[in-house]
Design brief:
Layout (H helix, E strand, L loop, with lengths): L4 E5 L5 H11 L3 E5 L9 H15 L5 E5 L6 H9 L4 E5 L18 H13 L2 E4 L7 E3 L8 E3 L1 H4 L31 E5 L10 H10 L4 E5 L13 E5 L3 H10 L2 E4 L8 H8 L3 E5 L4 H5 L4 E3 L4 H16 L7 H8 L2 H11 L3
Helix pairs in contact: 3-4, 8-11
Length: 347
């Protein structure tokens, strides 16, 4: 039986996007449209190329699925509307945020914000990965000063229907390894160089100085130039999923200390591998962690130090009977995302 064709537009290929591609390929034949949108000076050229690529295929496909709002979502939404093809945009985080003081969020850039607004308005449906990307706020970064975000906060007049479909994770891949012994004193985080402050890298660096008998790992980035770090903190650079999994498996605790977090994919992966989560009280992080770890109420390294001492004492006394892995399996399985996607997307 011939599979229906769909056009999938993505600016990048993170693990969660590759996972969606694998899931969608079970039911559809995919035509993938992608360019290196990080090279911003080439964006006008890519948009012209994309326009003609979509024009050549739009009549062959049943619908269009776009990952992230951005320059790349403009023509798919416009041509989908013109040719009456449903267009779905999966929203992941930065495409719903504006935090100028941290140089974060697509919506802080006026031109890019305009392209996102037009795309969201023309789309058939928006598919945010958490309800916090719809409209939410928190004062984690600066107590007493709310930091509001979400696509409906920034674009309150948009009437496009939306459906929250959380990310899903493969528990058969992200799992503990019984042959790897945890020592009770190993901490890990994942972030890019651009996210060092956004995801609390500065706080982790300070903690490493205060907990000299513990080991700290940060994957996804190299050591920032000029930063003085203690010997017990290692920056691992960009490593493959298999290597990241090994570090999760030997880590006792995982940090997700974000000021803003679209979802928290690495947090879920780490929890599936048996890490106790330590996260900030923002966006979707409290829903992911539940009662299986610690939530930091404000961005205060002294409070974080106190909380870590508390959780390590509980673990040492054998009072930690929480199961972060089971929480992710129950709430964020890959099968659940697959079921929800297929319930929304046309046959």
């Amino acid at each position: 039986m011939t599979k229906p064709k769909i056009l999938l537009v993505t600016p990048s290929f993170q693990t969660f996007i590759l996972q969606d591609i694998a899931v969608l390929s079970e039911k559809y034949e995919l035509i993938i449209n992608t360019y290196n949108w990080k090279v911003k000076e080439f964006a006008p050229i890519y948009m012209v190329m994309q326009f003609f690529h979509i024009l050549a295929h739009i009549n062959q496909v049943s619908f269009v699925l776009v990952h992230f709002g951005g320059y790349w979502s403009f023509f798919p939404s416009l041509l989908g509307k013109i040719f009456r093809k449903p267009v779905y945009i999966v929203l992941h985080g930065t495409d719903c945020a504006s935090i100028p003081e941290l140089n974060y969020g697509s919506l802080r850039i006026p031109l890019l914000k305009w392209f996102c607004e037009r795309s969201y308005d023309w789309a058939s449906m928006l598919l945010p990965v958490s309800d916090s990307l719809v409209n939410s706020s928190n004062d984690f970064y600066q107590p007493g000063k709310q930091l509001p975000n979400g696509f409906l906060y920034h674009f309150p007049f948009i009437k496009t229907p939306y459906r929250v479909i959380p990310n899903g994770f493969d528990e058969s891949f992200w799992k503990p390894d019984g042959s790897i012994l945890k020592n009770g004193k190993t901490f890990m985080a994942v972030m890019s160089a651009e996210q060092y402050i956004l995801k609390g890298g500065d706080m982790i660096t300070e903690l490493a100085k205060r907990f000299q008998d513990c080991n700290f790992f940060i994957a996804g980035m190299d050591k920032p130039n000029g930063l003085q770090i203690p010997d017990n903190l290692k920056f691992l650079g960009k490593i493959k999923p298999q290597e990241i999994k090994t570090y999760y498996q030997k880590s006792d605790y995982y940090f997700q200390l974000s000021i803003f977090e679209g979802f928290g994919c690495a947090l879920c992966e780490a929890m599936l591998c048996g890490c106790q989560p330590i996260g900030s009280d923002v966006n979707n992080i409290p829903k992911i962690i539940g009662d299986t770890g610690i939530l930091l109420k404000k961005r205060d390294v002294n409070l974080l130090e106190k909380n870590i001492k508390s959780i390590m004492e509980l673990a040492k006394g054998g009072h930690m009977d929480l199961n972060p892995r089971e929480r992710i399996i129950q709430n964020y399985s890959l099968e659940n995302r697959k079921k929800l996607l297929f319930s929304v997307l046309p046959d």
